[in-house]
Write a sequence for this structure.
């Protein structure tokens, strides 16, 4: 791994994935990859309940040069130690706008699958990693799996996570990158040339809502 993404979902991670791959740091691991591969979902499902210090991270992430988004970013601290030469990319945005994006997308999935009686269908791969996601959910938000945190709780978790990454990652390995910044700071951090093309802008709230609706109907989303 050359680049470890440490940011929460809905901080521009899909766009950053595309940017990293454009800069030659691909393939880039992302939740979208997990949802499109039972084999990859199985790798992550296999570590549920395993102490993180006993996970063979090099084997789990074999073939990936970079990674952003959950579930990878949840384990940023372990990955920093497992890949000492990797740089750390912390994607951030205004925490209240982040909450609004989460509320309209990921939190909506949780609410509708639980996981209430709506009958919303989700990808099989998501079911495979559900125990791991439940652990992540409880750790970050302090509420039971299937329960959506309120804004104050979620924003506090976001800010707590950001502060911890900044405090624990050496400054020369870390870039705090705000969604929408564009190429320049990212390229300088990675030692890459700035492409002569717009920075990717993918998977905004409306696109994610459309995915939610396809999940509800049991249609493929990747």
């Amino acid at each position: 791994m050359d680049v470890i993404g440490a940011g929460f979902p809905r901080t521009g991670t899909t766009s950053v994935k595309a940017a990293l791959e454009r800069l030659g740091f691909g393939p880039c691991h992302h939740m979208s990859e997990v949802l499109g591969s039972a084999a990859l979902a199985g790798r992550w499902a296999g570590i549920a309940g395993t102490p993180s210090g006993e996970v063979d991270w090099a084997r789990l992430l074999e073939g990936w040069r970079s990674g952003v988004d959950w579930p990878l970013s949840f384990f940023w601290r372990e990955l920093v130690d497992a890949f000492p030469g990797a740089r750390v990319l912390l994607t951030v945005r205004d925490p209240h706008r982040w909450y609004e994006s989460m509320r309209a997308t990921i939190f909506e999935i949780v609410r509708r699958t639980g996981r209430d009686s709506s009958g919303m269908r989700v990808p099989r791969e998501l079911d495979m990693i559900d125990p791991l996601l439940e652990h992540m959910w409880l750790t970050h938000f302090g509420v039971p799996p299937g329960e959506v945190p309120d804004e104050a709780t979620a924003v506090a978790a976001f800010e707590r996570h950001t502060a911890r990454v900044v405090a624990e990652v050496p400054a020369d390995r870390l870039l705090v990158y705000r969604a929408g910044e564009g190429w320049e700071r990212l390229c300088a951090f990675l030692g890459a040339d700035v492409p002569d093309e717009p920075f990717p802008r993918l998977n905004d709230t409306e696109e994610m809502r459309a995915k939610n609706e396809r999940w509800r109907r049991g249609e493929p989303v990747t």
